[in-house]
Design a protein that fits this description.
Subcellular location: Cytoplasm
GO biological process, one term: response to stress
Pfam family, one: MarR_2
CATH class of the largest domain: Mainly Alpha
GO molecular function, one term: DNA-binding transcription factor activity
Protein name: Transcriptional regulator, MarR family
Number of strands: 5
């Protein structure tokens, strides 16, 4: 393995371990496993095209069975709501309940991270973030996975005027809030060549 690739892998693996430790600690206080918190966090940022069990399964990279059992537990605890889709009766839509949103607010998954990031020079933090985003996208696309990017960074996002947006894929109007959520159908914008 290339030395820099090995260093990236090692650092990201170690950061991932810290994230899992934080999730275990935060979830353990509420009888939840890391996968349950990951599902809640996902539903807090997923748009209306991405709030299905199948999209969650793809995002987490887990089996349908694991995700299904996790969703059953979250629903029984009143942390998520399940609704049939108004247009496609085969689809189930998921949303955080008020209790689920409050739980995420109460457990504060990122306080240590937020504190540490403030100690890094803003320009260095910005560069690190850009590199990690580029690495994530390259790995996702290289493996044939969806990018689940933020709507306003998608090639299908059409800015039609002041606070007026439309999805070029579905032809549906998008609110400003919609454009800030992640989307299963996200296609990264092509970088313009100069």
């Amino acid at each position: 393995m290339d030395k820099s690739a090995a260093q990236f892998f090692d650092l990201i693996d170690r950061l991932g371990n810290l994230v899992r430790v934080n999730l275990r600690a935060a979830g353990g206080q509420h009888g939840l496993q890391p996968v349950h918190l990951q599902a809640l966090v996902y539903l807090a940022i997923a748009n209306r095209y991405s709030n299905t069990p199948q999209a969650l399964t793809e995002y987490l990279g887990l089996t349908k069975g694991t995700v299904s059992q996790s969703l059953l537990l979250l629903h029984r605890r009143g942390l998520i709501e399940r609704q049939g889709d108004t247009d496609d009766k085969r689809l189930v839509r998921l949303a955080l309940s008020e209790s689920g949103a409050q739980l995420l607010k109460d457990i504060q998954l990122l306080p240590d991270w937020a504190q540490v990031i403030t100690r890094i020079a803003p320009q260095r933090s910005k560069i690190a973030l850009a590199v990690l985003k580029e690495l994530l996208l390259a790995l996702q696309l290289g493996a044939g996975n969806r990018s689940f990017g933020v709507c306003n960074t998608c090639q299908h996002n059409l800015h039609e005027g002041p606070r007026s947006y439309r999805c070029g894929l579905t032809e549906e109007k998008l609110s400003l809030h919609d454009t800030r959520m992640i989307c299963r159908e996200h296609q990264p914008r092509q970088k313009s060549r100069r």
